[in-house]
Amino acid sequence: MTYGVVIPVHAADDGRVGYLQQSVRSVLAQPDCVAVVVDDGSPKDLCLPSSPNLRIVRREKAEGELKTASIALNTGIDMLLSGEVLTGAERDDLTAVCYVHSDDYLTDNSLTNRGTVLSDASPFVYSPMLLIKNEHQGGIMMGNKNPAFFSFRGFPHHASMWSASFLRQLRTYVQEKYDQDGVFDRNIFAGEDRDVTLSTMELLQTLDKTQHVLDMPTYCYRIHEASITGMNSLASRKSDEKFIDKKHGIPTLSRIVYPFLADLPWSLGARCPEIVKKLLRPVRDGLRRKPISENPIQQTEIETIL
């Protein structure tokens, strides 16, 4: 059993290098893993540890190439699926594939907890993920347990894992349906993770297969100003959201209503008319944050959005 983990990175400063090192350590601490770091033209030395389970691939960005993580992700995934970066034994035993962004990291036993529940009938698994705002103050656990909300805010896209055989089918599916040259759409600046989740759900439905949902967090998502999402403008994000919605046939009403409900102030605000409060309170209560206990990563209060 071998788990392949792709880590795309463009390290333009020492801060990103430090995040990457933590990310790589969290992957190499997992049993039965092969970590593939795809260095997307970093100007900085990555200073990565030496390990038989670590493969480093260097690619240079082409002139005029969009600054997205998709191409690096596709490069790593294709190398895993083809076995190009694997030994013969690893290639034969490749069970599942997932990814970790270079400023994020995995929880203990993340790969095993996700990989052991994969099956032919359920070749896709996801879990909640911890949103890390301050390393000394724990995190917030995010993840909607209701798959009906998978395409909207609150879905933990990064905490996803595919069986290797299903991922090969997904690659063919997006190539034939969307004319993509990889699992991730290289034309999407912000939201490529949401896009691939939607494609995954489409293929699951086509093949009459299901996803598996874990109740435990397996991924730590770091929130900081230098992240790609943080640097991306609101206008650009909205443009990508519209593109993804149109691509997958998601109604405009869904795109507007669900993010609004997810962001609804817990107090509903003093200026909110009472009749509106009455109508929206049940929805708010269903989305409100609740404390979680007995989490090994918890340092103070960890909350969850259900």
Give a topology summary:
Elements: E1 2-9, H1 14-28, E2 33-40, E3 54-59, H2 70-82, H3 88-93, E4 94-99, E5 105-106, H4 110-115, E6 124-126, E7 129-132, E8 140-142, E9 160-163, H5 164-178, H6 192-206, E10 211-213, E11 219-222, H7 228-231, H8 234-248, H9 252-262, H10 274-287, E12 289-292, E13 302-305
Parallel strand pairs: 1-2, 1-4, 2-3, 6-10, 7-11, 8-13
Antiparallel strand pairs: 4-9, 5-11, 6-9, 7-8, 12-13
Give an account of the 3D structure.
The protein is of the alpha/beta class and 306 residues long. It has a single domain, classed as Spore Coat Polysaccharide Biosynthesis Protein SpsA, Chain A (Alpha-Beta Complex), CATH 3.90.550. The protein has helices at residues 14-28, 70-82, 88-93, 110-115, 164-178, 192-206, 228-231, 234-248, 252-262, 274-287; strands spanning 2-9, 33-40, 54-59, 94-99, 105-106, 124-126, 129-132, 140-142, 160-163, 211-213, 219-222, 289-292, 302-305. The chain has a seven-stranded mixed beta sheet, sandwiched between helices. A six-stranded mixed beta sheet has the order 5-11-7-8-13-12. A hairpin with a 7-residue loop joins strand 7 and strand 8.
